[in-house]
Every structure is written in structure tokens, then in C-alpha cells.
Amino acid sequence: MAANATPAPGAGPTVRRLRRLELSALTGVLVREIVNYSSYWRSATFSSTVEPTIYLLAFGFGFGSLVSTIGGLPYVEFVGTGTVATAVLFSSAFPAMFGTFVKYTFQHTYDAILAAPVDTEELVSAEALFIATRAGVYGCVPMLVAIPFGLDPSWGMLLVPPIAWVSGFGWACFGIMIAGFAKSIENFSYIVSAVLTPLFLVAGTFFPIDNLPDWAQLLANLNPLHHCVELVRHAVFGLEGWEDLARLGALVVFGLIVWRVAIYAMTRKLID
Amino acid sequence: MNDQDGNGANAPRESPAAHARPVGSGDLAIRLRGVVKRYGTITAVDGLDLDVPMGTCVGLLGPNGAGKSTTMRLLTAQSIADEGEIEVLGYRLPEESKIARAHCGVTPQLDNLDTTLTVEQNLLVFAHLYRIGRGERQEAIERALEMAKLVERRDSRVDKLSGGMRRRLLIARSLVHRPRLVLLDEPTVGLDPQVRQELWALIDALRSEGTTILMSTHYIEEAQRLADTVMIMSHGKAVAAGPPSALVDEHAGQEVLEVYGPPPRLAEVEAEADAAGLRTRRTGTSVAVLGWRADNGPRLDGERRPANLEDVFVLLTGEEIG
Hints:
The structure holds 2 protein chains of 2 kinds.
Chain A: H1 23-62, E1 69-70, E2 73-74, H2 75-105, H3 109-115, H4 120-138, H5 141-146, H6 160-181, H7 187-201, H8 214-221, H9 224-237, H10 242-270
Antiparallel strand pairs in A: 1-2
Helix pairs in contact in A: 1-2, 1-4, 2-4, 2-6, 2-9, 4-6, 4-10, 6-9, 6-10, 9-10
Chain B: E1 28-39, E2 42-53, E3 57-61, H1 68-75, E4 83-88, E5 91-93, H2 97-102, E6 104-107, H3 119-129, H4 134-147, H5 163-173, E7 181-185, H6 193-208, E8 212-217, H7 220-226, E9 229-234, E10 237-242, H8 244-252, E11 255-260, H9 263-275, E12 280-282, E13 286-290, E14 303-306, H10 309-317
Parallel strand pairs in B: 3-8, 3-9, 6-7, 7-8
Antiparallel strand pairs in B: 1-2, 1-4, 4-5, 9-10, 11-13, 11-14, 12-13
Helix pairs in contact in B: 3-4, 5-6, 8-10
């Protein structure tokens, strides 16, 4: 047990602390998430897969009857790859926002975890890792659903889960960050209406952004969701080298920034 | 109050705050010096000194808002003190808090069990959070199940348990890694008397095993029964500290005369006692005359009873407790 590994108390003036981001602390929090997931996986899987599938079918067949191809792709294939990003967003930012808030405010789960040898940094990181992994899996659902509707399987599809994972990590941290700054759960409506909905619509999921005004295109390039959409399409239909590396870089930078800000926000909230 | 387990080594020590000990001295599980914690304009903890010797049970007694819960949060570095020194198991906080937390068990005031998980799953999660190795995990869980008397209910979901079972699980969860120090924040708050007594038995068993306990409570009886030493807190400060019986002797004397009557009669009794130089306190339907003896006080009819910690508390703070 841990007791054996401890230096004798009062040994001297040096600060004896455990390292940051320890594997055992991350594992502890992850185990909690995994065990809990075993009790709610049905509902989580249902909402994370049915919603993007409805988007896929509604837009794919609704718009698909008006628009046959976009940029040389049949519309169902265009949307089938695009809604991967939607599925990632829905299975990361939203559960992170609401889940974090509920665990903090109503379940007081974080009080129990932080009383154990786990720091806020480890808590936030482990929560984000778990949500990212889920998003990496759920993100593939629209693409898989599109296959029977005409999307041809390709080896590049194997890159989609890692792309969805990297993107999901960023959005999970984004959600935790918002929950960390939010004073009440009502504050989330501002974020959903003013941030997530526009980002979701102007990501190139349902229509290409090339035809938008210049300012909107510029904004779209600041939208991590757009880079996820493009990366997934390129992975499925053919990678574009440097451009895609830059997009991946953008996702990684987004993830790292919101990760640190999420830790800051949650530390402010949890430690007084 | 007698030392219940009759163990001389666990005998109450002198007043906790009375003697400053050298930094990092090994026989103190908790050492606070001049600790101040402010929230905006409110000073929740106001220059608190506290010693918890290894192997003892110390009770923090005070009404709601006295600073007990803040003190508990300071000990796990979930609150960071504005001033003063805090050491837990010889580790300086907040810098070394994570390693101190590895050796502490914390029972929170608010039930934060995972309600959709089973009893055993809740313990499993904490076995991981407290880094119990794979080989010892199951054994630790079994031990905790037995301690909580929940072996039969191991596969029940927490939301199917009674309030008392949930509390036992909450305490057992904090003991899964055999901590050297246990922090119990209001362990029996809001529970009915039978359940409270069950929990006292659990805490007493822990105490007799030599685990160091710091327990906050606003139940006088709880502190009197379980604690070797009690620190009475009010407005973030320690107003008195010592073994319960010594505190009672020192501040409230041996006996109290409880005089019942209608409000005008109670006012008369207070005036008579005051004239005789005796202190009184109102306890709802009666006036308690402290230190009353047939030979020193006015002639009064009432029930004689031993003085208790509640008398001490009210005398020292002017507040009702609990």
C-alpha cells in the first residue's frame, strides 16, 4: 500500500510532493468514469449515435434531393463524412459541460476525488481523456451509417477515430472550461446558442464554406470543428499533405489551449 | 466522561493548543498554527491553533458556521489558508498536500456516493483513487464491506440503500486504504438516533484500532462519547480545548440545577442566581443554574443533573449549539 512508499514525516525542509499528472491518479479517475459508464452506456450511446444519424438522413435525403453533388462528392457522402464532426461535438462538448457541472454542483463528486491523492490538473485531464475516447468511437457512427447509403469504405477511414479523438479532447476541455466558469447551469444556453450552434453550422458539415463571404470563411478557419470536418473528409477521400498537417496542428493547439484554461477554471472553482 | 476503551496510551492529552511543538514532530497527526481563512469579507477561520496527537480522537464542536467545515477543507488543501501553518502527518500544506491525502481518509458531510453504482463498485473506485495495488484491492474491499456491515448488500445499487447504510458506506469508503488519519465531517448529521448509535460503534471501533480521528460535529453527545479531546469553535476561533470532562469541570462545575416553570418564574430564578453570583443559561423550558449547591445558592426547586459540554459551550460562546 501507498503507506510504505512514503518518506518519514518531518524528514527535512525539502518539499516532498508527488509528481504532477501521475498515471495512478489519472487511472483512478478513469476507473470511476468507466465503472459509471457501465451503468449509463445505453442512453449515452443512443443519444450520441441517433442524433447525428438523424442529421445525416434528414440532410442527406432532404438536401440530397435538391443537390446531387458538392465538390464532386455525392451529397450523402459529403454529409456522411461531415457529420462525424457533429457527432464528436455532441458526444464531447455537451457531456463535458453538463456532466462537469452536475458532478460539481449536485453530486459533489469532485470533492471526494480531490480529497484523494488527485489534483485538479489530473482530474480535468482524466475526464477529458475519457470523453475524448468516447467521442473517438461515437464520432465514427455517422460515417458507418453512410456506408450502406453509398459511402465507399476506404483505408483512410482508419484515421477517423484518432482525428475524432484529438478533436473530442479539445471539445471535452472546452465543455469542462465552460462548466468551470459558469455560475449556473442556465449560463450554458448562452454558450450553446451563441458559440456552439454557429460553430456547428459554419463548419462545412452541411454546405461548403467556399461560397461564404470572406469574413465568414476567415471565421470558419478559426473554427476547430471545420478543421475536423475537412480532416475527416480528406482522410476518407484522399489526404492533402501539408494542408491537413496544418489542420491537425490547429486541432492540437486548440486542445492544448482549452486543456490548460479548463484546468485553470476548475482549479478556481474547486479550490478556494 | 471516562476514557472509554481504558487504554492508557490513548489517554487524553493536555489542551491541544496549549503547547507549541517543534515543526514536523512525529507525534502530531495534525498541527495548525495561526491559520486564517477569509472568504471576501467573512473570516471563516480566524487564527486557529489545533493539535491532533497521533492515535487520538479530537472533536471539533461548534454550531453551523463556526468554521468546522472550512477547517476540514483546509486539511485536504481544498481550501488554501490565507495565513498560518498547516501540517498533516508531518507534511506541510498546501505544497505537500497530495502525499498527505494519500494517507488520509475523508468522510464528507454531504453524501457524494455514486448512486447508480453498487456498493462494491463504489469501494472499487476508491480503491483505485487511493492507489491500492491490484493484489490487495479485493481484500481491501472485503474489509471495508465488513466494516460497513454491507457484505450482503454488496451488489445493491446505492440508491436502493437506507440512509444509515449509505452513511456506513460513506465512512467505509474513506477507510478502504487503511488511512492513518481519518477526517470525519459531521459523520451523523441528519440521521435518526438508532443509526447514529450504529455509526458511533463504527467510529469507536476505528478509534480502538489506533486510527487518528478528527471529527467535526455539532452534536454534544457525539463529541462527549467519542472524542479524547474536544475543541470548541465559535466564529472561526477556538474558544476552549481539552478532554470533555476537564472542560466541563473547569467551565461549568460539577452539577447543574435545572429549574422548570413559566417564563416569569424563570426570569425570577435568573435574577436570584445572578444575585448569588451563579451563572445561568436558558434551555427552552427551563433555566439551568450552573455550579449550584444546596449550601452556596438560593433555595430553588429543580432537577439536579451533571454539567455537560453543552453548558460549557453556551457559557463560553453565548450561542446555542446543534
